[in-house]
Amino acid sequence: MDLTRALAAFVVHSRLENIPPPVRHEAKRALVNWMACALGGAHHEAIGTALKALAPFSGPAQSQIVGRLERLDCLHAALINGMSAHVLDFDDTHAGTLLHPSVPVVSSLLALAERKTLSGADFLHALILGAEVECRVANVLCGAHNETGYITGTAGVLGAAVAVGYACGLDERQMTWALGAAATQGAGLREMAGTMCKSFVHGRAAQNGMLAALLAARNFTSSQCAIEAPRGLIAILAPGAGVEAAIAGLGECYELMRNTYKPHACGVVCHPAIDGCIELRARHGVAVTQVRSVALRVHPLALKLTGIRAPRSGLESKWSIYHSAAVALCDGVAGEAQYTDLRVHDGEISRVRECVAAEADAALRDDEAHVAITLADGRRLEAHVTHALGSVDNPMSDRQLDAKFHQLAGETFNVERRDRLLRACWAVEELAGAAEIARLAAAPASM
Amino acid sequence: MDLTRALAAFVVHSRLENIPPPVRHEAKRALVNWMACALGGAHHEAIGTALKALAPFSGPAQSQIVGRLERLDCLHAALINGMSAHVLDFDDTHAGTLLHPSVPVVSSLLALAERKTLSGADFLHALILGAEVECRVANVLCGAHNETGYITGTAGVLGAAVAVGYACGLDERQMTWALGAAATQGAGLREMAGTMCKSFVHGRAAQNGMLAALLAARNFTSSQCAIEAPRGLIAILAPGAGVEAAIAGLGECYELMRNTYKPHACGVVCHPAIDGCIELRARHGVAVTQVRSVALRVHPLALKLTGIRAPRSGLESKWSIYHSAAVALCDGVAGEAQYTDLRVHDGEISRVRECVAAEADAALRDDEAHVAITLADGRRLEAHVTHALGSVDNPMSDRQLDAKFHQLAGETFNVERRDRLLRACWAVEELAGAAEIARLAAAPASM
User: What is the per-residue pLDDT for A446?
Assistant: First the structure.
């Protein structure tokens, strides 16, 4: 099957009015969540360090760095904004593949919007198309590839290429070239977990996909079947995988409808366990000093991906189901403030963390968990989370996304400015120029 | 085994005076050959197209584009010069792995030399170390990975990181981070063969490895075992491969001693067949019109990698053993001029190309070939090439490299300027600043 060409043709011939309103609404939710995360992450140490390293090589000040004062050339802006959007591990997740759809797509599109006139409707359309293609290719790659690679780095780069390519008006052939130039840059090792390079992998998906589209727009040639060819992307990362999953129902059902948003600031696979801990704490008024042991029963992936027993830093703690359960019991939330070096080394949290045991149960769904707490007085409290908050079957509401936005944007903007930016995101489809969103996302000069 | 740390420690503690003179001399040969190829490729369509696409995003004019007038920021210069050095498929090849050692290493170092003071001796030392690490990792990856991936994209990126990292004075820990940031960018699909994206993959190895080192120099953290970790580079690209080959004899024998240079402007695997055709043409004064059939017996890789039966363009013809045999018989050489659209569509060459049959013989070495020509008068001429010119066992001489340089630089520079640049390359170890080479490689303004 000519998968690359089929995807390119779908993108080039897509019309926004044919895309169902719920999909368009989901794209706005993705944008709001992206903006929340990017603002929350914009002052993370990894971002400052990357900016210091890269600023000397930046081109003209074309595009805004979200939540900061800096402006860089649009390729570097895509990188840094992509890193900001991912660095807190608070970004959206495509159910089933674990791809973070908005990081490559929104980061590159927002940077482009200041370089080239782009209506809000075209921005939204490009976002949907980029997410569609990257998620569909991720459906093929995911399986075993997810154990070693970051699928946002390997499939997400295609999303950025498609989004920017659509926004730049590429024809069908150029779109296959953009996909080719993106596919040949697909990269990212899970070994980067817990280091600054994890956000780098994700930001690069935005930057590299954008680069691919900008090259294709100049007729820089590539393969026209880079995804499915015998020496192509699938062959190298998921040899033997069938391509059908990438094409089934194309244009009828949209992958964004399987997009999810995190209420907690850590690896999504440990969210059900966090929900269970928060529930027990609230239901029974558990005093942390009384906790003697915590037994988690979770999907195997939760231990595989968030199995760090004794995290040494805030960054590492986001990949520790043990730390996550501990902060949920101690603080009743698992927000950004719970994943700092300070909280990792806090005496009480450390004590509770050491009381947590986790067991994999392949019979559970990945949004399901059992939590059992034994207290000093011998009482045993149990919770069964059937669908974690933020999962496909128990999504965060629009208002919960607004609250997340206000929480993460709170250090950058006052409430009036936050409201303006939030309104612009929800109203993106009506904006004459999507660049307005980028302008509103600049940190106030007085910061 | 802590492979990443072992390689970092080796690099950081290396001393030029402990590196045997033949290795240092080989590094100079690699530099001369790189410069020849980069000058020859600098005006290729792929380079012009990439420059047009990327110039709007370039930072300050820090580094020279070899053989041209443009100056870009050093990261973009590393990319473009790497593309120029590879685009003719005339660059060096590490025997056994098919990695092109100089493209990532020299392209990044030369760009850096104008950004930061770098003595010729340090340049040479960094070149040797970068080549050493990339080739050693390639020794581990090569096998099956070579069938789908470009090893210069996946292992070569480490070479650029090491070379630039060494030149920037990274400490041991920073060097592991540079290797980590490079490893997580390792990418490149063989599917790009015959398109502009092939040179892009190779240039990106230079640019991305350099980026990794510049990030590490600012303490941008990464894994310290990204190459060998269970979710690292080897695990994703060559699962199960043993790491011993990357460490055996480290610091005692140097991989540059297995570096080879191409006398012919096409895929190295078809060179023995070309040598046989040239030999028969010269020995017997074969008139092309008399050629009725040509039978090649070659190593299986020759058919796998250069098996394009009916090339449609000059670029594709470099991957056609059939075209290569035809031009060798018609023109007596297989230089850049033989791989143009014009020659591909030439009537006589097309006729001879169609007379060529090729058969794989697993009993042959990859630098070996049998050629048999049947003439119109029934005569059968045979040649057996035991070691192709440019192979480890039949290397090009320094003077042959000089001739290749003069041939490829001829369109850019007059003979006096060519001599100056060539002398500077051979004398790199004595130069106060390696930047002199970059300055001498700028096209004359009158071009």
Answer: 62
Q: CB A189 to CB B233 under 8 A?
A: yes
Q: What angle do CA B59, B62, B65 make, to 5 degrees?
A: 100
pLDDT, average across residues B28-56: 97
Q: Which residues pair with B180 in a beta bridge?
A: none
Q: Hey, what are B101's tokens?
A: 């050692």
Reading the block at residue B131, the tokens are 């080549």
Amino acid making up residue B96: G
Is the pLDDT confidence value at B446 over 80?
Answer: no
Residue type, A368: E
For A12-17, the CB contacts below 8 A with 24+ separation are A12/A166, A12/A170, A12/A171, A12/A172, A12/A175, A14/A125, A14/A129, A14/A166, A14/A251, A16/A121, A16/A122, A16/A124, A16/A125
Overall average pLDDT of the A268-297 stretch? 95
Contact B53 A215 (CB under 8 A): yes
Model confidence at B201: pLDDT above 70: yes
CATH class assigned to A3-261+396-440? mainly alpha
Would you call B218 and A53 a contact, using CB atoms and an 8 Å cutoff? yes
What's the DSSP call for residue B443? P
| B50 contact residues in A (CB cutoff 8 A) | 215, 218, 220
The Cα–Cα gap between B354 and B325 comes to 10
Residue A139 distance to chain B (closest CA, Å): 18
Q: Give the list of residues 6+ apart from residue A67 with CB closer than 8 angstroms, or none.
A: A38, A39, A41, A42, A43, A84, A409, A412, A441, A443
Burial, A119: exposed, middle or buried (Cβ in 10 Å; 0-12, 13-18, 19+)? middle
Q: Is A61 part of the contact surface with chain B (CB cutoff 8 Å)? A: no
Residue B411: strand, helix, or coil? coil
Q: Are B305 and B269 in contact (CB under 8 A)?
A: yes
| DSSP code of residue B289 | G
In chain B, pLDDT over 70 holds for what percent of residues? 100
Task: Indicate the burial class of B362 (C-beta count within 10 angstroms; 0-12, 13-18, 19 or more).
Answer: exposed
Q: Which residues of B touch A49 (CB under 8 A)?
A: 215, 218-220
pTM of the model: 0.92
Judged by a CB distance cut-off of 8 A, whether residue B201 touches chain A is yes
ipTM: 0.92
Beta carbons of B261 and B358 less than 8 angstroms apart? no
Give the ranges where B222-356 is alpha helix by DSSP (H). Answer: 233-237, 271-284, 300-305, 314-317, 321-331, 341-344, 347-355
Within 8 A of B75 by CB-CB distance, chain A residues are 57
pLDDT at position A324 is: 98
For residues A61 and A68, the answer to whether their CB atoms sit within 8 Å is no
Task: Band the pLDDT of A297: cuts 50, 70, 90.
Answer: very high
Judge whether residue B439 has pLDDT over 70: yes
The per-residue b/e assignment along A153-182, b for 16 or more CB within 10 angstroms, e otherwise, is bbbbbbbbbbbbbbbbebeeebbbbbbbbb
A189 at interface of B, judged by CB pairs closer than 8 A: yes
> What topology does CATH give the domain B268-385?
60s Ribosomal Protein L30; Chain: A; (3.30.1330)
Domain locations along chain B: 3-261+396-440, 268-385
Tell me what pLDDT residue A286 has.
Answer: 87
- Which B-chain residues 251-280 have CB contacts (< 8 A) with chain A? none
Residues of chain A in contact with residue B62, where contact means CB-CB under 8 angstroms, are: 57
Task: Kindly report the nearest CA distance between residue B230 and chain A, in angstroms.
Answer: 8
Confidence at residue A288, expressed as pLDDT on a 0 to 100 scale = 92
CB crowding A389-401: b at 16 or more within 10 Å, else e: bbbeeebbeeeeb
Of the candidates B87, B422, B21, B99, the one whose C-alpha atom is nearest the C-alpha of residue B258 is: B99
